[in-house]
Amino acid sequence: MRDTRRFSRHESRTPRGQSVVEIALVTPLLLMLLVGTIEIGRYAYYSIEASSAARAGVQYGAQSLAYSKDLAGITQAAQKDAPEVPAMDVSAANQCACSNSPANLVGCPARDCTPGHGVVFLKVDTKANIRPLFRLPGLSLSFAARGQAIMRVTQ
User: How many Å is the maximal CA-CA distance in the chain?
Assistant: First the structure.
């Protein structure tokens, strides 16, 4: 038997047009994935920097009770650790506990700690508002990268 089917002039034996349509449909999706990956990477980077800056600030302040009250020095130590993070807010607060139960924070200065004694902790919080590189629908105009560190103050 002989195949009697005939191809019209508009039918093609190779799917060239189909490939162009597929690329046209998939390219925007791939670009959105690329942009999303870049933004997630930036957010992770700035979050790590904010956490590292909080650790640097708490290390400075935990040297002594006098340094734990030096907010300018704590802020400077945190900002020097992360100079590429724009406009980072730094806050610090002393917290007290008893040496026999350091998990239970009490008011400063710690009283009624028998048989233990009062212990001072320094808590440093950092926050930086980061603007995305690309304006995407559904995303906010900025996102917050935060860091926190707590360390016992040397007494």
Answer: 105
